[in-house]
Specification:
Length: 177
């Protein structure tokens, strides 16, 4: 049996209604998404001036911090060996059974001998202990046997009085330049 024109018209209207329903559904979903995106865009645009102000403030802080860093780097010696030397000196003092009561370091300077550049730091070390232990400490500094770092020391002055010694020394470290 052959379908009649009415059946074809009803089927066509049904298919058209289904397609139209799908199109409306997709359209309304897109309208909803568009409204959400529009709301999010408005919220982002509202935040933008505040974020730009924060960015400018952070850039100013960065510029100030960079300027301060540059200023401090110019004032602070590049060499930090004195901190490392301090560690060695305290370890040597511990090994020799003396206590360091004061340690004063001058900023390192450079001394060039031929093509070799040495970093020279001057220290004043005050230690307390038995005379024999103090002498062991001075000897350990002079010989450099207990040094963890590649450096050598020159004791320029030492005075010992009643269990306290004040030792002036120069520490030479190889800079490799």
């Amino acid at each position: 049996m052959k379908p009649s024109k009415k059946v074809w018209i009803i089927v066509g209207i049904g298919i058209f209604a289904i397609v139209l329903g799908i199109l409306f559904t997709v359209y309304f979903q897109q309208v909803g998404e568009r409204e959400q995106l529009s709301d999010r865009l408005e919220a982002a645009e509202a935040l933008l001036p505040g974020l730009e102000a924060v960015r400018e403030e952070l850039e100013d802080q960065l510029a100030q911090a960079t300027s301060l860093l540059n200023k401090n780097q110019a004032e602070f010696p590049e060499s930090v060996e004195s901190i490392e030397y301090d560690d060695d000196l305290f370890e040597i003092a511990d090994d020799c059974n003396v206590d360091i009561t004061r340690l004063t370091a001058s900023p390192p300077t450079s001394t060039k001998v031929g093509t070799v550049t040495y970093s020279v730091s001057s220290f004043v070390v005050v230690v307390v202990g038995d005379i024999d232990d103090i002498l062991d400490f001075i000897y350990a500094i002079r010989t450099g046997d207990d040094f963890q770092l590649p450096w050598s020391a020159e004791v320029t002055r030492a005075s010992i009085a009643s269990g306290t010694a004040t030792i002036n020394l120069n520490i030479y470290g190889y800079k490799g330049k």
